[in-house]
Design a protein that fits this description.
Length: 232
């Protein structure tokens, strides 16, 4: 048998495994969205994908590892769309426009957000998942960092270091998406735009106030209210 034939023979199984993995990821996402993380079973996912449980386990060691793979696949796809939407931005974009672009590309879904928090609740008790969660968080930070760098075009350098803004923005996005699962009147764009404005457009003309000075001011105001009959 020639070397070329041997290589060709070896390539086919790799392509099959790649297709199998992709099909499982697509099926798993559908089941996780429909049933949640806790409600989804490996049997259901295998059946939805049209494979045996053995074929599924040959690609993913556990339901948790499968969920992490689906999460990464979704996140990277949305990250690529965000990158494309913000590519070539050189002028200052209003924070409302940035927020609209973020939500248009992230496309938060209530069912997936809930499934994600179900997973996190269980993953917090499993130390073996910690390193993978850190990797995913780093990938999410890369996406947020790209958004912030594009948003800073045409603006003065913000007072906060970039990495601190990445952390705040990531928490803001996650918090808004979580709140939106039960607060149906929440304006996602407005909420994110407000947070971005505080980081990117805040004025440095106001003097910094120490915690001690702030507390002293609060105590003075409270004392004044106590002695002011009209304040009651």
């Amino acid at each position: 048998m020639s070397t070329r034939t041997q290589r060709g023979t070896g390539a086919a199984p790799k392509r099959v495994r790649s297709v199998t993995r992709e099909n499982v990821l697509v099926a798993a996402e559908e089941v996780f969205v429909a049933k949640g993380y806790r409600g989804a079973s490996i049997n259901e996912i295998a059946a939805e994908a049209g494979y045996t449980i053995g074929a599924l386990y040959s690609n993913f060691a556990s339901k948790a590892q499968l969920f992490l793979a689906v999460t990464e696949r979704r996140m990277l796809a949305r990250g690529r769309r965000l990158e494309a939407a913000l590519r070539g931005v050189h002028d200052r974009l209003p924070v409302t426009t940035v927020a609209e672009i973020v939500w248009a590309e992230l496309q938060p879904e209530k069912a997936w957000t809930i499934a994600g928090y179900e997973f996190v609740a269980e993953a917090m008790r499993d130390d073996s998942l910690g390193p993978r969660l850190v990797e995913l968080n780093d990938e999410a930070r890369d996406i947020v960092r790209d958004v912030l760098v594009a948003s800073m075009a045409g603006r003065p350098v913000p007072p906060l270091p970039l990495e601190r803004m990445v952390t705040l923005t990531q928490c803001l996005i996650n918090g808004i998406a979580a709140t939106a699962t039960y607060d149906l009147d929440l304006d996602l764009t407005e909420s994110l735009a407000d947070g971005l404005a505080l980081m990117l457009d805040q004025s440095r003309s106001a003097p910094d106030v120490s915690l001690e000075a702030f507390r002293a001011g609060q105590e003075a105001a409270a004392d004044q209210d106590m002695h002011d009959p009209h304040a009651r």
